[in-house]
Amino acid sequence: MEKWRAANRLLKYSSKLRCDRRLNLCYVNSIHSSALGLTRGFGETCKQFQPLIFRDCSKTLQEPVDRSLFRDACRIQYRCFGFLAKEVKRSPLFSTLSADDISYFKRILGEKNVIMDEDRLVTANTDWMGKYKGSSKLLLQPSSTKEVSQILKYCNSRRLAVVPQGGNTGLVGGSVPVFDEVIVNVGLMNNIIAFDKVSGILVCEAGCILENLVSFLDNQGFIMPLDLGAKGSCQIGGNVSTNAGGLRLVRYGSLHGSVLGLEAVLANGEVLDMLGTLRKDNTGYDLKHLFIGSEGSLGIVTKVSILTPPKLSSVNVAFLACRDYSSCQKLLQEAKRRLGEILSAFEFLDEESLNLVLNHLEGVRNPLPPSMHKFYVLIETTGSDESNDKEKLEAFLLHSMEIGLISDGVLAQDINQASSFWHIREGVPEALMKAGAVYKYDLSLPVQKMYDLVEELRIALGHSAKVIGYGHLGDGNLHLNVSAPQYDDMILAKIEPYVYEWTSKHHGSISAEHGLGLMKANKIFYSKSAETVQVMASIKKLLDPNGILNPYKVLPHCVSSDG
Ligand SMILES: O=C(O)CC[C@@H](O)C(=O)O
Ligand SMILES: [Zn+2]
Predict the structure, then answer these.
(1) Are 445 and 329 in contact (CB under 8 A)?
(2) Does the complex come out with an ipTM higher than 0.90?
(3) Looking at the predicted structure, is the pLDDT value of residue 246 above 90?
(4) Measured between alpha carbons, how far is 208 from 167 in angstroms, rounded to an integer?
(5) Where are the alpha helices (DSSP H) in 348-438?
(6) Could you tell me which residue ranges the FAD-binding PCMH-type domain spans (predicted)?
């Protein structure tokens, strides 16, 4: 009885759900549900989910610890609302485009930057994987902060929903419309504003393509602190808005550290100038962090200033094979200890990932002789003393071989060989796309546990799909991907919520570096407490009271911002 009360207290606090002991089910308080606009069809949904909810409630009852009780309460909440979210409905609060709207946009942006052409809209409406498709009728291409501000001010007054878009390389459906949101693509805002060679601070517009920044900096003797497989298309504004991690995070940290300032336009058109270039600035709340990783739901990032490291002369890349996952882990520990400051990447892929790349990408070959290796590790070092660095890396490799952590390996002899090793690792997402349907999970997990999930999911899925594990081992970030000939709800039902529950149970994050987007907005409770989500919703309400910015993404659809 006491536990039921406790569960109800938690549920009351965290959601609009109640547990009923006599009926052995959870139900929704109808006043709240109507406030959330969920009345129609909700009775049906609850009936349908009764066995599931009942099961979860019993589990809740058996758990003596409050914390886990709370987590379960959140899960119940997800199960009900998650089901509804699958059928996310266009908010009736948003207007639809009118001829007057188009005329206004043409007046401020010029005809050619107001795009209604079908082919171009198909591209802008569809994500990189072809998995998420919106039906927007309008793509706007502003050329300046002022134009972004005019667009948002107008959209806000007209209650027109907006999806901010950069290179559209995201993997969680965050950068494409869900319905008919106006697409605002900042790709024309691609100027480099300033570069200070002494401090290494770059100031540029949000639409700069990452690879272009890399080339620019290369000429100046610097590098970008982040590097990703999608660098040829992704834009720095999108990288910052999603807090993209990538291949160098182990060395240079996340964008919360390297982004020194930014400019963002709020939903009402107000421009927040936080484009500082200082390493240290403790004057009040550091609001720029709200825009790093909030996926365009709080404002559109228009400019960034970013600290870039100098380009160092000696870069070495080794491609290694390990017998088992435990050796990969130990190798990571050794690498941190023995390579220390020169370690710049520590990536891993399993045998299945390598096979996918070899089978689906042209011109890629395994640099190691064919064998039964289960795991591969790519290590990169970057330093300033060629002979010393090489010596250090060779000594580390020799030692690791002697103690049996590496079963085979090759050290790149030139830049071409180094990039061919990188091509294997960076090619995994492309190979997966070519192989058929893919379910993607981007998880932060304790390194010791990480691969258990891959193995357990393999058992759960049997022969119905291939489960592969790869990613940024140095950052504790697993890319768990399930590859199948086509999308199939039976397969999905075996993966979710299993993967999310497993991650939550091991205190991991259900989004390490890809964001929540549309895919995981309703799953946020697996990684964040109800109180935290409620504060996020309040911030959203403060900065975007009409909810026009990237609706249906990031925050769960069941959380109302007024408590
Ligand atoms: O497609 C994925 O799952 C991961 C993509 C990207 O983050 C990578 O590290 O290659
Ligand atoms: Zn990644």
Answers:
(1) no
(2) yes
(3) yes
(4) 9
(5) 351-360, 386-402, 415-426, 428-435
(6) 132-311
Centroid of ligand 1 to alpha carbon of 246 (angstroms):
8
Average pLDDT over residues 478-483: 98
**Does the beta carbon of 231 lie inside 6 Å of ligand 1?**
no
Q: Per-residue pLDDT for 24 more than 60?
A: no
CATH 2.40.160.10 applies to domain 314-428: no
**What is the SS3 assignment for 154?**
helix
Q: What is the pTM of this model?
A: 0.86
Order across the sheet with 114-115: list the strands: 114-115, 139-140, 182-185, 162-165
Q: Taking CA 498 as the corner, what is the angle to CA 496 and CA 500, rounded to the nearest 5 degrees? A: 80
pLDDT reported for residue 559: 63
Q: What per-residue confidence (pLDDT) applies to 263?
A: 99
Pick the residue whose CA is nearest to atom 7 on ligand 1. 246
- The count of other CB atoms within 10 Å of the CB of residue 402 is 9
What is the CA 204 to chain-centroid distance, rounded? Answer: 23
Range(s) of the chain covered by CATH 3.30.465.10: 92-311+530-553
The residue assigned the tokens 């920044």 is 213
State the ligand closest to the CA atom of 432.
1
- What is the β-pairing status of strands 182-185 and 162-165? parallel
Question: What per-residue confidence (pLDDT) applies to 557?
Answer: 82
| Ligand 1 neighbourhood includes 171 CB (under 6 angstroms) | yes
Please state, in angstroms and rounded to a whole number, the distance separating the CA atoms of residues 555 and 534. Answer: 9
Distance 389 CA to ligand 2 centre (A): 26
Angle between helices 66-86 and 2-14 (to 10 degrees): 50
Give the distance (Å) from ligand 1 centre to CA of residue 429: 6
Q: Is 371 exposed, middle or buried (0-12, 13-18, 19+ CB in 10 A)?
A: exposed
Please say if the pLDDT value at position 327 is more than 50: yes
Residues of the chain with CATH 3.30.70.2740: 436-514
User: 481: Cβ below 6 Å to ligand 1?
Assistant: yes
Listed in order, the ranges of the chain carrying CATH 3.30.70.2190 are 314-428
Residue nearest to atom 3 of ligand 1 (CA): 479
Cβ pair 13, 66 in contact under 8 A:
no
Question: 246 CA to middle of ligand 2, Å?
Answer: 5
CATH of domain 92-311+530-553: 3.30.465.10
> What DSSP string describes 36-53?
TT--TTHHHHHHHHHHHH
- How would CATH label the architecture of 436-514? 2-Layer Sandwich (3.30)
Distance 501 CA to ligand 1 centre (A): 21
Span from the CA of 197 to the centroid of ligand 1 (angstroms): 32
Q: Is 423's C-beta closer than 6 angstroms to any atom of ligand 1?
A: no
